Amino acid sequence: MTPGKDGARYYGHGLPYADIRDLKGTLITIEGTDGVGRSTQVGLLKEWLEVQGYGVIETGWTRSELMSETIGAAKAGHNLNQITFSLLYATDFADRLEKIILPALRSGFVVLADRYVFTAFARSVVRGADPRWIRSVFGFALVPDLTLYLKIDADTLIPRVLRARGIDYWEAGMDMHLGTDLFESFRKYQWRLIREYNKMSREFGFVTVDAAQEPEQIQARVRQRVQALLEDRRMQALSTSLERLRPLLFEAEDDEPAAAAGPSFAGTDEAPARAARAPSQD
Description:
Mean pLDDT: 84
Shape: globular
Helix content: 55-70%
Oligomer: single chain
């Protein structure tokens, strides 16, 4: 993790051509494996924040105008290898970071990211990528202000996914050749993803939320943590404003005696001198 300019931080080398000197907004990411309920929680959180008076921008995985169609077409052909998989997602993320996330943060918005670079880390590592390599690829990513991790176990997840929409090729990790049975491959793949997320949770300090609860209970926990973060940032902004005003207040106090003073000593000393130089009237 590398400190960036003016307190902003990156997970690596940063985004050299992006101006990040004044990011007034808040970046909140929601992570978790497939079918855990991230999108539902993001939607509920966005509505709640807007009612509180915040401007909110939502962004999600593979939603960039530049890359979304390309990624969809590549996945439909079932012909992505691990490196291509990672680089396509990195391009998508870079486009959204430059065109959506950074402008919104400069404008003071709350940015809600449905998945962040941790999704790429988990998916690539379970497919055999070198962890250092994949983190370097996404080294231009900003460190979020808060990452909420919707944690669930594979046995609880499987029935939920089956009831909601079924299992697709990539969610089942069929490209990894874990087995010919779609259901069994899904179970193995999701178990590996969850294990990787749990490791990252400890490493990156995720705020863990039990995703086995009812959606309303999950949202209550999510709102609690988000509200605490935003209140803390508001107090920091107030403290910063006061620090900027302090020199001006002291300067005004220092100026008051000078303004209230009578004639200067210099003026008083010069008068006798002029009188001494004047011709005598006698």
